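CO-FOLDING WORKSHEET

Operator: S.A.
Ligand of interest: zinc ion
Run index: 265
Mode: holo prediction, single chain
Checklist:
[x] sequence pasted
[x] SMILES validated
[ ] output reviewed
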Amino acid sequence: MGQNYSTRFESVRDKVSAEEWQTRVDLAACYRLMDKFGMTDLIYNHITARIPGADDHLLINLYGLLYREITASSLVKIDVEGNILWKPETDYGINKSGYVIHGAIHKARPEVKCVIHTHTRAGMAVSSMKCGLLPMTQTAMRFVGHIGYHDYEGPAVNLEERERLTRDLGAHDAMILRNHGLLTCGATIQQAFNTMYQLELSCRAQVDAMAARTGLTLPPQEVLEHTAHLYQPGTRRPYGVLEWHALRRLLDAEDGNSGYPPYWH
Ligand SMILES: [Zn+2]
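OUTPUT RECEIVED:
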């Protein structure tokens, strides 16, 4: 018996609610953007999103696909415990142990609609630094007082660690998993992506600056706090909304001739 690892999936557009379809398209776009901006780790990691109107139902990637292969119709519907409610006809499944971190946050923070976790080179580097994320650049300053840290406890996340994970995240939308990687979440897929993009960029700049082995200058604490406040999503405008249209145009223009199925399929 040959296994069905085909990546041609039947469209579910006419089989799901309008809200679910929109979430599928936005989430598939988010996977593609993570790929485009160099934030992937082969077939690993996840981005999960809640389906509006069915808030205990989430969407997650099939385990085995590159992010650039993920489409709206290939996403798997699961409950908050990670049980599969629907998946396309395929022998690919989901990475249930990888979902545990996401599940803990979705359960503890009902207002969170999307969780993104990465193992990027710069994210892993900063996650291993004693100093953590430095408020070194304007991009990094938004995280002053708005980022959690979770100590590494091994690859398997048990029930007690879930509690420590959600405690360490607190009310923040960003967390550094020490010796492991990065995590962001948000009220929308767009906002979670935007926060991850800024966190990743902050880590890349910090690694570059520290590799230059010269003294670093940091602004005074009151400037950092004022800046962090101005950059919170509620202060001036929600994050990622204005950006999203431009990012979707970028995907639409480039994905048409990438050789991979379009994300909106
Ligand atoms: Zn991980």
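REVIEW:
Residues 246 and 252 are 10 Å apart (CA to CA).
The radius of gyration is 18 Å.
[x] output reviewed
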